[in-house]
Amino acid sequence: MSSLTLKNLPDQLLEQLRVRARAQRRSLNSEAMLLLEQAMSNDSCASPAQAGAAEQEAQLAAWARLSGRWPGGDAALTAMAAEVEASRTLGREFDL
């Protein structure tokens, strides 16, 4: 098992850790490990794959909420798309 040394730990933070450890009847080491485990399990940055999946699910949910909400339904959307296509120009002619 690996070890971790924390340097320049602020006195106030160390005291808070001591108080928590004492209240839970744990060693400083055990309390620090527990807090790290909890932070890592709640942190979306801890697992990029999980963070990506959560973001994708959120985007899909947003699209699902928006789907079918276009005023006039698909017919209006199709007509609008046709109007945009018809208004397009081919641009200027050029020679290569």
Describe this structure in words.
The protein is mostly helical and 96 residues long. It has two domains: 10-42; 49-87, no CATH class. The protein has helices spanning 11-24, 28-42, 48-66, 73-87. The longest helix is centred in the middle third of the chain and has 19 residues, at 48-66. The radius of gyration is 29 Å and the shape is elongated. The model has no long low-confidence stretch (mean pLDDT 85). Residues 3-39 form the Antitoxin FitA-like ribbon-helix-helix domain. It comes from Thiorhodovibrio frisius. This is Arc-like DNA binding domain protein.
Report a brief summary of the structure.
With 96 residues, the protein is an all-alpha fold. It contains 4 helices and no strands.
3D shape: elongated
Tally the structural domains.
2
- Beta strands, count: 0
Mean pLDDT, as a whole number?
Answer: 85
What fraction of residues sit in β-strands? under 5%
The sequence of SSEs as H and E is: HHHH
Radius of gyration: 29 Å
Strand count, sense and barrel status of the largest sheet are: none
- The helix content is 55-70%
Poorly predicted runs of 5 or more residues: none
Q: What is the tally of helical segments? A: 4
Tell me the span between the first and last alpha carbons: 68 Å
Structural class estimated from helices and strands: mainly alpha
